[in-house]
Amino acid sequence: SAVISQKPSRDICQRGTSLTIQCQVDSQVTMMFWYRQQPGQSLTLIATANQGSEATYESGFVIDKFPISRPNLTFSTLTVSNMSPEDSSIYLCSARAGEAKNIQYFGAGTRLSVL
Amino acid sequence: GENVEQHPSTLSVQEGDSAVIKCTYSDSASNYFPWYKQELGKRPQLIIDIRSNVGEKKDQRIAVTLNKTAKHFSLHITETQPEDSAVYFCAARPSGSARQLTFGSGTQLTVLP
């Protein structure tokens, strides 16, 4: 298995500001992912972050709004920029790990509230 | 792209009864089907998964069945307990290392004592 640490666990932010979420994996992984989960909803993939290349964003998500860094094989950050109340959500980091690098594990999430 | 539909959205069962959650997928290239359990305020956790080269997999009280022809797979929980109460998500992923998981909409399972 893999242990994924994510911080902060929650934050309350003002409109127009930015928040950077950090994700640390306890083993080297090629693929890391960032998801958004609205309360009571499913998981929506924001982007895939591979070390050494630009993140790949899903439809509806853009780099200017959600810049991602992936400086090494165990760490990634997601920034939520110029926040509005519509960005209030849970943001989850995920990584594909395990022996076959096939199982996807999740961090505990960051609960973001934007006022 | 892949589309995964999950039913029912809510399910209530009496403790000790069985629970079944069903998912259908659209992409015939999908070959990996995990199920995640998410308790309130917690992270999604993998509880069981199945690959397309098998039709059924069991792990104690949990089983998953896969019908590739019909493109559907199901989660079966027997002898349910109150601690089984959670949201369950199915997912599907096509073959290829760069392909991503597509999640179903989730099922809120409540086990009544």
Quick summary:
The complex is a heterodimer of chains A (115) and B (113). Chain A has no helices and eleven strands.
Helix-residue proportion of chain B? under 10%
What is the H/E order of chain B?
A: EEEEEEEEEEE
Characterize the largest beta sheet of chain B: strand count, sense, and whether it forms a barrel. 6 strands, mixed
Order of helices and strands of chain A: EEEEEEEEEEE
Number of strands of chain B: 11
**How many helical stretches of chain A?**
0
| Rg of chain A, Å, rounded | 13 Å
List segments of chain B where confidence is low: pLDDT < 50 over at least 5 consecutive residues: none
Low-confidence stretches of chain A: none
Name the helicity range of chain A. Answer: under 10%
Average pLDDT of chain B works out at 94
The most extensive interface between chains reads:
A-B, 16 and 17 residues
The rough form of chain B would be described as globular
> Which quaternary structure do these chains form?
heterodimer
Structural class by secondary-structure content of chain A? mainly beta
Structural class of chain B: mainly beta
Overall pLDDT metric of chain A: 93
Say how many strands of chain A there are: 11
Our measurement of the CA-to-CA distance between the termini of chain A, rounded to an integer number of angstroms, reads 37 Å
| Major sheet summary line of chain A | 7 strands, mixed
